[in-house]
Design goal:
single chain, alpha+beta, Pnp Oxidase, Chain A, 2 domains, nine-stranded antiparallel sheet, 24% helix, carboxy-lyase activity, UbiD_Rift_dom
Length: 461
């Protein structure tokens, strides 16, 4: 049996890193440490059953603890960020609006231990087998860092499937900045330098998941979210900068094999088992890490979904602000994987219910929208359903748009019927559940008990 590895999770003075985030979540009751030995393949099942995030101090056959479930709910996501739960979208939007350039350091915790070349062995990491029909063990929390000569640094979130002690397949199946950058190397027949960070603070992880415009440095976004610059360090074997306070860094290259190596199936963010894909190979040339690292196993689907939820809500605030609609609240719903389905409350002027729908459906990931008035608590599904029931006429207030860009992960677009490389087309809809023009607001006045302020129930119990 493996003895528990006592790894301290305390924040460094003046700068909260991944470990500081874990320590704060533990104090707030959002993370629990497990001392009893656990097999790596049981981590996903145990994490999914737990009411908090879990840190497994004793992983059998490994001296590295594993943590998971950090962003499983909206409350845990708020705890990881240190933000109020009701302000995730607004806080994210404010951070994006005030980016801060990162600080470059020369010494970093992520390089306390260095393995090069033949010393590299991915089997030394407790990479878990996560879902029943997965094609292999996966690094699910990898944040990839690259540097484009024209567009500059780029960071994004990509899964990697274990193949050999030095090779993994990386999912570059859908459109992304990294895929566009890699395509140029592939066409020249050259390997592309890439570094993968595991165990970074929620600010860096969420910024990497954010669909920033091409040429925008995601680590500047991370600085805006954090309110102070992110600390980066140059990799030991290549000129790419990575978070200095990360737990583990894999330095390597994407081989110019193109989309030829089998990858998957893998449990997707939409909660469904994905298909077998063919993707490029990532060869690891160096592993650097803290003296006693923590491995982060991000759990699908909710951790992936909530990493994107605040960014989706921020995008809704931004696009509605651009068209002059006054928004009071936005929620990316869990039923829509924290991005595909949106509920919005607005202070409506004539026609703005449908204006809002048209704008929101233009966002790439959003597939369905409900827009209602600001007297509705959109955190209460019963109130939202009430508004749809009594403020909507289906022939007038349901907006359907066809021929829009879809996502391969959505089975309803039949992606298996598409030619290789072709993007799917989808239909989207919105429900205008605002008070219709021409109906006075008093028609929706809620009933109240007579004399409710004149008596107290406590006096009669």
């Amino acid at each position: 049996m493996t003895a528990a590895t006592e790894v301290r999770i305390e924040a460094e003075a003046g700068f909260e890193d991944f470990r500081g985030m874990l320590a704060r979540m533990e104090r707030e009751g959002q993370l629990r440490r497990i001392a009893k030995p656990v097999r790596p393949q049981h981590i996903t099942a145990l994490t999914g059953k737990a009411p908090t995030a879990l840190m497994f101090d004793a992983v059998e056959d490994y001296g590295i603890p594993v943590v998971g479930g950090l962003f499983w709910t909206r409350a845990r996501t708020a705890s990881a960020l240190g933000w109020p739960e009701g302000e995730l979208g607004r806080r994210f939007a404010a951070g994006v609006a005030k980016p801060l350039a990162p600080t470059i350091v020369t010494e970093a915790a992520c390089q306390e231990r260095v393995m090069l070349g033949d010393q590299v062995d991915l089997t030394s990491l407790p990479i878990p087998f996560m879902h029943q029909k997965d094609g292999g063990p996966y690094i699910s929390a990898g944040v990839a860092f690259a540097d484009d000569p024209k567009l500059g640094p780029n960071a994004g979130c990509y899964r990697l499937m274990f193949r050999t002690r030095r090779e993994m397949t990386i999912d570059l199946f859908t459109a992304s900045d990294l895929r566009r950058h890699y395509t140029q190397y592939f066409e020249r027949g050259e390997p592309m330098p890439v570094a993968i960070a595991i165990g970074v603070h929620a600010f860096e992880h969420m910024a990497a998941a954010y669909k920033a415009p091409a040429g925008v440095d995601e680590m500047e976004i991370a600085g805006g979210l954090r309110g102070k610059p992110t600390r980066l360090v140059r990799c030991r074997t290549m000129n790419i900068r990575v978070p200095a306070d990360a737990e583990i860094i894999l330095e390597g290259e994407l081989l110019p094999n193109g989309w030829t190596a089998d990858e998957g199936p893998f449990g997707e963010f939409a909660g469904m088992q994905g298909d077998l894909k063919h993707n490029p190979i990532f060869r690891v040339n160096a592993i650097t890490h803290r003296a006693r690292p923590i491995f982060y196993a991000l759990q699908m689907p909710w951790e992936n979904d909530w990493l994107n939820g605040p960014a989706t809500e921020a995008a809704c605030f931004r696009i509605l602000g651009m068209i002059g609609v006054q928004v009071t609240s936005v929620r990316a719903t869990e039923g829509g994987c924290c991005g595909w389905s949106i509920v919005v409350a607005i202070r409506k002027r004539a026609g703005e219910g449908k204006n809002a729908i048209a704008a929101l459906l233009s966002l790439p990931v959003v597939k369905q929208v409900i827009v209602t008035d600001d007297d509705i608590d959109i955190d209460d599904p019963a109130q939202v359903e009430w508004a749809v029931t009594f403020r909507c006429q289906a022939d007038k207030d349901v907006v359907v748009l066809s021929g829009l860009k879809g996502k391969h992960v959505d089975p309803s677009v039949r992606p298996w019927e598409l030619p290789p490389g072709q993007l799917p087309i989808t239909s989207k809809f919105g429900i205008d559940a605002t008070i219709p023009e021409g109906i006075p607001a008093f028609r929706y006045e809620r009933i109240e008990p007579a004399f409710k302020d004149a008596v107290r129930l406590e006096d009669y119990l």
